[in-house]
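User: Run a structure prediction on this.
Assistant: Running it now.
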Amino acid sequence: MKSSSKLIYILFAFIFSHKSNSQSLPDEIYFAGNHQVLMGGQPYQGLYDHTVIKTMELTFNQPHFWDTMLVNYYTYTDLPATFQVDGQIYDSVGVRFRGATSFRDIDSLNKLSFNISMDYTFGLQRIDGYKTLNLNNNYLDNSMMKEYVYNTLARKHIPMPKVSYVWLKINGMDWGLYINLEQENKDYLKEWFMTNNGSFWRAVHPFHHTVPPPNTIGDGTAALCYLGTQDTTYQKYYTLRSSDDSIPWQRLINSCYQLSITNDSDFIDSLNPFFDIDKSLWMLATENIFSDDDSYVFKGRTDYCIYHEIETGRMVPIQLDGNSVMQPKYYDWSVYYHADTSTYPLLKNLLQIPSIKQRYLAHYRTLIKDYFDTTFTSPLIDSLSVQIDSLVLADTMKLMADTSYYKAVNKLKSNFEKRRKFLDSLPEFNVAVPVITSVQSFVNNIAWQNPSANDSVFITAFVMDSSGVKNVNLHFVNYYTGNFQSRQMYDNGTHGDSIVSDSIYSAFIPPANPGVMQFYIEAIANDSALTASYEPPGAEHNVYYYMINPVADTSSAIVINEIMAKNKTAVADSSNEFDDWIELYNNSGVDVDLGNYSITDDTLNYRKFIFNQGIIVPANGYLILWADEQHSQGDTHLNFKLSSNGEQLFLLNPQFELVDSLTFGLQQTDSALARVPNGTGNFIVQHHTFNANNNLNAGLQQNDFNNLNLKIYPNPADENVLVTTNSKTPETVFIYDAYGKCIDKFLLRSKASYNTKSLPDGCYTVQCMSVAQKFVVIH
């Protein structure tokens, strides 16, 4: 008898390894099952799988490679090497030493940190999708855990690099245990933001390796202080790491200027278009609670990054280093550390505003609860000890003695306890805060029903506070990125709520464009401080959401007529590239201008690609769109590609009404999915009729994939599965593994038996035409 627990495990793994492509949030943002959007906190596989300590080996051919790299440090010059990870060899990577104090200030010149460029020789070479690796030597951290613990905990509320442990060898010699820290680059940005097209700075002057900066903590240089109108001034203190923007420095200047105008009576409203105030507060509170002395809150001028998010037009500060957090001498840091210092404007100019200060404290309370519960942090540190203790003892290159390591681990535990005890003693965290529960959305009196674009949505929440409730506010924004709007919620019986003073507050969100609507609740206590709280507590990155469905445009003559999502050799574009394509057809006798129409594969963004004026679908004619992410090649080249594994397409008119849509499954190479009869029929798989009528020779039998009946049994299978269809013609059947790789194919004439003896236990997909069924193999 097969193990039921094993079957459940395989099914669970399969379900969660096949996420829908129709809602393309960044990798670190996800929809939870409780109508919420969450950030971070998901386990990693591959390069940063924290459950596995990978062995990495560098091999240099140069006889004096170490001396050469010491010289190269000051010029940022890579040295070629062969790189091996758990037996997988990567040829001709580039290697150099990295770090500032971790290079200059250590006594040993052996246990140095490394930067590894996978694309040094081969521009497309990657490891698990990453082109840059950072191997850190844990300088200033005898526990070898601080960066790991900090990054693991803090990523729930702010962007943080992935982190894992590795064992390093160089030319066959053991070099010891290292932290494998994700590089903060465009790949990293794409994991936390909708795109990585904005400008990304590190707050440090470009030549800090060759000319170490003086010890001028808090000098105001790279601390977002306004330094005048000349971009050359800012270029002395900030390093622009990447940008697809033509005026990055002007945006930085404008943002610093707005942050400096503290005498503006509408300071919040004037600053909000330039800075993401809420994300700034989360970063500042996180750096403070961990008493991070490599941070904005400590140094001001360095050890943090800034990202200009194109979608919102706002600056987002981003945490950088984490190897020197939680030092014992800083356990009693004030929660307003440097908030009274003018050269720290992100602290001083924000926290002087009472409402922003209360938002900051509300976030800080959430961090105390999430990060400084010792019933969680102590077991986390213990689990790391189990994982690395023996490796630390075996590391002959480490920067401390064995006894120092054990002392540091115990001290890290006690630092969490001391910091928590200190924070619990502060009056800011010994006040009653408003309690918000039972948040719901209603459409036509049905809870959590997704509205159409014509519907208002009724939001309710139960709010209580011992000192009374002064205000309850509803904050909401259409689409995933954007600036939240606010409106007051009421409990007076005249704003949609039926009972006066029952502590149930309510407000309407007006009709909005199709896509995602995010919202959260803010409650203000009727006390002297106007203490604030939020639901969900992680707002504005942890919020409630609902999806808004588009209204159908029943008068349009334009349809999605044919697609090819796996074009290998079938049709080339004008650049001789075999890209995905979409064919539109005009069923009317009048030309249609697609100006301000939109097409998308993303229900989070129905305006993903907007057509320019003058893009015509001729009367009873066709228009080919190339889904190739190469809009520079022309106005009919889209900013997205089609997934050959299947997804959704939506075509909308300028009024956000749905003109046509298509949901398709796994696609075959060089086969098209086409409407038959042309322009009106159901979709079938057939040879392409690119830019032409889809009606093939009437003598050729075609199968409508919507009506194809595909069955597989038994399921789960052991030695064989029986595959049957109602197709009247022989069809090719494809077998795919759980990663979407085609592992076999055969010709099916109504019924066939397929041998599964040689297949490993796991989940598989059978595809016939565009119909797919899943089955599980358990031996």
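The chain has a mean pLDDT of 89.
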